[in-house]
Amino acid sequence: MPTYQYRCQKCGEVFEHAEHMAEHETVQLRCPKCGSDAVEHKPTQFFAKTSKKS
């Protein structure tokens, strides 16, 4: 299950939330610091780790 980063537009708090990819578009989150529902997805880098060496 991927972990996404979010940022509160009201207080600036950055937090993470684990959710299914299908749930990502419809999830309704609140800031854990101030309780505001004005949160935005903060794009982050993605790293793939494999067990085979190339």
UniProtKB/TrEMBL annotation:
| The UniProt record lists the keyword Zinc | yes
Q: Which keywords appear in this protein's UniProt record, sorted alphabetically?
A: Metal-binding, Zinc, Zinc-finger
Pfam families for the chain: Zn_ribbon_8 (PF09723)
Q: Which residues form the C2H2-type domain?
A: 6-28
PROSITE patterns for the chain? ZINC_FINGER_C2H2_2
InterPro entries found in the cross-reference section: Regulatory_FmdB_Zinc_ribbon (IPR013429), Znf_C2H2_type (IPR013087)
Q: Which SMART domains match?
A: CxxC_CXXC_SSSS
Q: Which NCBIfam families match?
A: CxxC_CxxC_SSSS
Per its record, how is this protein called by name? Answer: FmdB family regulatory protein
Please report the organism this UniProt entry assigns to the protein.
Answer: Variovorax soli
